[in-house]
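Friendly challenge for the regulars: who can give me the structure tokens for this chain first? No prize, just bragging rights.
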Amino acid sequence: MRLDNLTTTEKRRYDDSCGTAHGLELIGERWALLVLRELLLGPRRFSQLRADLPGLSANVLTQRLAELEERGLVRRRMLPPPANAQVYEATEWGLEAEPVIQALGRWAARSPLHDPTLPLSGVSILLSFRTMIDEKRARKVDARIGFVFGKDRYVARVRKGRIKIAQGPVEQCDAIISAPPTALAAVVYGGAPLDMLGISGDRAVAEKFVNLFVLPPKVGS
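First reply, four minutes later:
Bragging rights claimed.
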């Protein structure tokens, strides 16, 4: 059989019974893991995924979504009126991949080659908070923080050293941060001044929040 006649699934078979090999068959294709990442905090429209993964073409995004849906990691559904829009969301099994993504992110952040100044999405920075939170510091904080990334709204609940993040209205939050994800990352992980962020509500709560996260040490440091 000629290689160009093989299906995507056939091309990516490793003929290895290890679960790691099968995991790569499920989400190892270029962009697949990042597409799934973007769905871990709730359903997204196709246009939202395209906007937050600017290096990904519409054709490849369509292909990856179809593959993830076929493998049981993603599903489509219609939002009720008045939205009447199709969205993609991670299945229950797809959501179970978050610890894998977190572990990979924490491990890769130790690389001296990691460039934290590159663009990142709102979902990506918020998931990093769930990965990099310092539970000891967070035990002293009990607050709701809202995040506004363009038209997207998320709420982080910090309590008893833990953080939960989900899509939702931000009006009742103690503090609301409105900023590009790259600016938020620069403040939280790069030590940039808080004034880079648009903050409404309790500024002191926002200041406590941005100091709850610690990157792992670089290899060799």
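The two ends are 50 Å apart (CA to CA). Residues 1-9 have pLDDT under 50 and may be disordered. Your move, everyone else.
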